[in-house]
């Protein structure tokens, strides 16, 4: 990888209802991400955090109908879209540090402007494929991928003036173990390539990633990896807001990222849902940094 890595912090929390995930980008920095990537031999530019609206307890936790915190979510995703697009224009490799997973609306929108056939790997316990009518919570971090596929709120789907940002046949879901009924129906209807934890247990992570690479290589001209730390088992990453037992192990995830790095196909990346207020000694942020190390070519020898 010969591009400069650009770290873009997105301290956003409006896509869900728990405080602390907005501290995720700085927790990852505190865990030494810049120094780690530099030791591998990369040039790293830390662009700091994008500007986001202020939050109040009442606003974040208020009972409401429809999309929660809609104006704030639209605002920061537009800002993030522009920042990510600018990063790619400058020849950088954008790494977005989150922040809740609603930020992927902005990051992938920024990336998609530079590719005709963008692919997305969604490494997560959840599909994030809800629409407002079917969402049990109204939390947008559970709708972001469906919006990027062109469904759900029209204004968010049209962010940047085009929709969809990614078609269902260029999406791969890895680590799935908590899907709502509407999400399952959507996956089946569109034939989205999906690896549940049962699939990973049966096939092994090496085969899953190899199949993913073969599947996307022939149909994409760039691939965005969106990595939610809750894809890993909560014993591995306790500092996250939507824990689901039975997830990927530390070693499985490192090996997966090593294989993706070796493919040379990944063109941009999110690391999301690190919440230091729910963590134990910043362990989850440290795990995120270690995963980034593996993705960017860190080896033992």
Please describe what this structure looks like.
This protein has twelve helices and eight strands. With 301 residues, it is of the alpha/beta class. It has a single domain (5-295), classed as Ureohydrolase domain (Arginase, Chain A). An eight-stranded parallel beta sheet has the order 2-1-3-8-7-4-5-6, sandwiched between helices. Strand 5 (171-176), helix 8 and strand 6 (193-196) form a beta-alpha-beta unit. It is globular. It starts with a strand and ends in a 6-residue tail after the last helix. The mean pLDDT is 95.
Keywords, separated by commas or semicolons:
Ureohydrolase_Mn_BS, EC 3.5.3.1, alpha/beta, 301 residues, 12 helices, manganese, metal-binding, Arginase, Arginase, Chain A
Tally of strands: 8
List the domain count as a whole number.
Answer: 1
Straight-line distance between termini: 18 Å
CATH class: Alpha Beta
Separate helix tally? 12
Global outline: globular
Structural class: alpha/beta
Rg over CA atoms: 17 Å
Summarize this entry quickly.
The chain has 301 residues and is an alpha/beta fold.
